[in-house]
Amino acid sequence: MKRSPYFFMRLQAEKRLQTYSFASLGLLAAATLFAFYALQPTTDTTPLVAVLTNAKPVSEEVAALAAQERTAVEFIPETAVTSQIVSTNNQLFLTDPDALVQATLELPEQFNRFEPKAELNEATTLGDISFSTKIDNAYEAVDPTSIFAVGSYTVYATFSYDGMADGMVWSWVWRHDGEVVDGGNEYWEYGADGPGYIFYNPEDGFRAGEYTLEVWVNGEQLTRSNLRMTGSALSSGN
Fold first, then answer.
1. Measured CA distances, 59 to 3, 70, 71, 91, 210 (Å)
2. pTM for the whole thing?
3. What is the pLDDT of residue 54?
4. Tens of pLDDT along 163-191?
5. Rounded to an integer, what distance in angstroms lies between the CA atom of residue 36 and that of residue 33?
6. Domain harbouring 89, CATH code
7. Could you tell me the residue range of the domain that residue 134 belongs to?
8. Where are the alpha helices (DSSP H) in the chain?
């Protein structure tokens, strides 16, 4: 039988069948592994953050520690001089105490040159001063403010008056950080009541700091207000 040509043909066929079988098994195993890895879900590596909408409040110790950290920050005023808070027309300003006392008690001599021809009376009052860079036809401030930017322009100070009389002596004094920088003095000739205004436009422009306007009648200060000039371009009604 081994000499028969069919024997060798059959033997070769069996070997080829074995080779094809092993190759098929290898391909099947490879396909199975590929399908196994391909069908696995993708792993999300994005870090997850839990939002605690119903978190418990912090403990009293933690809250006290946070409060101490907040109060540990010291407020440093713009200038190195000793300062205090002064309320004028519901505005807060930093003012030198000595200059404030002087401004409250004394009228500078250069603005006290005349003797009154009419006396003050109980009805004599001057209203609060409003500052602006524009006024309307009724002498009222347009977009009044107490904070302006440094620069060269005109600031108007408007106020109302009642119980005045022609012949009284009135004075106005502008101060910059307590130092007198401008003012005037004359007899009053504008009637008993109405609106009034004073304007100021320094030749060198407004400098950073606090400006104060005082209005005196017959040697008594009847109204006073402050404005602040800053180095930043804040809204000033220009």
1. 100, 17, 19, 38, 45
2. 0.56
3. 37
4. 999 999 999 999 999 999 999 999 999 99
5. 5
6. 2.60.40.2550
7. 84-230
8. 5-38, 60-71, 97-105
